[in-house]
Amino acid sequence: MDPVVVLVISLSCLLLLSLWRQRSGRGKLPPGPMPLPILGNILQVDSRNIPQSLTNLSKVYGPVFTLYLGMRPTVVLHGYEAVKEALIDHGEVFSGRGSYPMGDRVTKGLGKCVCLTGNRWREMRRFSLMTLRNFGMGKRSIEDRIQEEARCLVEELRKTKSSPYDPTFLLECAPCNVICSIIFHNRFDYKDQHFLNLLQKINENMKILSSSWIQICNNFPLLIDYFPGSHRKYFKNDADMRKYILEKIKEHQESLDINNPRDLIDCFLIKMEEVKGNPQTEFTSEALVNLVNDLFIAGTETINITLRYGLLLLLKHPEVTAKVHEEIDRVIGRYRRPCMQDKSSMPYTEAVLHEIQRYIDLIPTSVPHAVTCDIKFRNYFIPKGTNIIISLSSVLHDSKEFPNPEKFDPGRFLDKSGKFKNSDYFMPFSTGKRICAGQGLARMELFLFLTTILQNFHLKSVIDTKDLDATPVVNGLFSVPPTYKICFIPV
């Protein structure tokens, strides 16, 4: 048979199969726009601004609707009520982790820890939380480490001598050293070239993951295997990271003292020894590499982006910065280093930190969820394994809870008497069973790093503050702020 005829017949069959699969499920799933064969609804979602696309679609189809990203149906939850009902009221069912092809490729199907599900996820999460607590999360010991790292950060910022400076890498070094002290039992000098190279790879990979191309690759996984693109650079950077982690694990194995674990790697190696006779164990060498890689990246980049965005917003709103300076002068002074005990006496600073996290909307659609079993949700039927997109943007930018949500206003988190007030809508770390395991550490770092910087410096913009643009340069998996320069003027 003529190859052209075979190709036409094959494509026709594929189109018919696509249409049949999409139509056969639409009577059960929530409503949504009519998908195209193979492409689904991909053309109706702006990959450069996914949160806004989801908001626009929710105005037509309601807070629970279905999108076909390629040939795969995905249910979108938009707005506080739908998110709360799913992640809290039906938390166990919605605790699965959705498909993420880019993650599967780099872990050879074992899954990155943030993408795990079932027993493997429970085991890794339980171990991570226990180990982080044992090494100081929420305790004075980790507070001391953060305070010391904040001091080192200030010393490096002084070396800029008030000149215009891009703070990206210094604001990455500090939180990275905190997580390194927990994982590797050591910190790095800020001028260590090997350390800076690793940070550059992390920074580059976060931009790649948030790009339009990667959103397309995740929806059409064949592109990952057979097409060139930035995903190749992502895989190369990730491989270099894993090579470094394997070298560190080997060093730990050679010097391990089971009676005196120094860090998370030691604790994992001890656990591996305890369960080595169990063929079903989740504690394997591959799992250790994945866990360390995830913690290393998450513990570095999320704090880095939030601090970078935070300083940009403080530059743009000098009246807010002045109030934080006043509160620091009154509560802490200029010579005592900030501590977590100060936070309860600094409601305005706490409100600013909350507003920064709300405003920047760091992970707009969270990491994909999935339902662990069939569920009837709001009179719709969602089959087991269906991917779920959680629109955290729709909660953090809810106009009823936060009037004029596009405006930066710390007053949202203050009552009439000036005391700090929280909001159920404040979900930068997500909510429910999949809430970020390191949120306690993150909150501690953000408070101590920001207050220490402002205790020691005035912030000066290189350009008119009215011309500062806080619009993210990419808005995919992460909201990545634009680069900018800032002058750190010693107080």
Question: Which helices and strands, and how do they pair?
Answer:
Blueprint: H1 3-26, H2 50-61, E1 64-69, E2 72-78, H3 80-89, E3 96-97, H4 101-106, H5 118-134, H6 140-158, H7 170-183, H8 193-209, H9 212-219, H10 222-226, H11 230-255, H12 264-274, H13 285-316, H14 318-331, H15 347-360, E4 369-370, E5 375-377, E6 380-382, E7 387-391, H16 392-396, H17 439-456, E8 457-461, E9 474-475, E10 479-480, E11 486-490
Parallel strand pairs: 2-7
Antiparallel strand pairs: 1-2, 3-4, 4-7, 5-6, 8-11, 9-10
Helix pairs in contact: 6-7, 6-17, 7-13, 8-11, 11-13, 13-15, 13-17
Description:
By secondary structure, the chain is α+β, with helices and mostly antiparallel strands. Helices cover 51% and strands 9% of the residues. It has 17 helices and eleven strands. The chain has helices at residues 3-26, 50-61, 80-89, 101-106, 118-134, 140-158, 170-183, 193-209, 212-219, 222-226, 230-255, 264-274, 285-316, 318-331, 347-360, 392-396, 439-456; strands at residues 64-69, 72-78, 96-97, 369-370, 375-377, 380-382, 387-391, 457-461, 474-475, 479-480, 486-490. Strands 1-2-7-4-3 form a five-stranded mixed beta sheet. Strands 5-6 form a two-stranded antiparallel ribbon. It has a two-stranded antiparallel sheet with strand order 8-11. A hairpin with a 2-residue loop joins strand 1 (64-69) and strand 2 (72-78). Helix 7 (170-183) packs antiparallel against helix 13, helix 11 packs across helix 13 (285-316) and helix 13 crosses helix 15 (347-360). The longest helix is centred in the middle third of the chain and has 32 residues, at 285-316. Mean pLDDT is 87; it is low at 3-26. Pfam families: p450 (PF00067). Its EC number is 1.14.14.1. GO terms for molecular function: heme binding; iron ion binding; oxidoreductase activity, acting on paired donors, with incorporation or reduction of molecular oxygen, reduced flavin or flavoprotein as one donor, and incorporation of one atom of oxygen. Residues 1-27 form the signal peptide. Heme binds at residue 436.
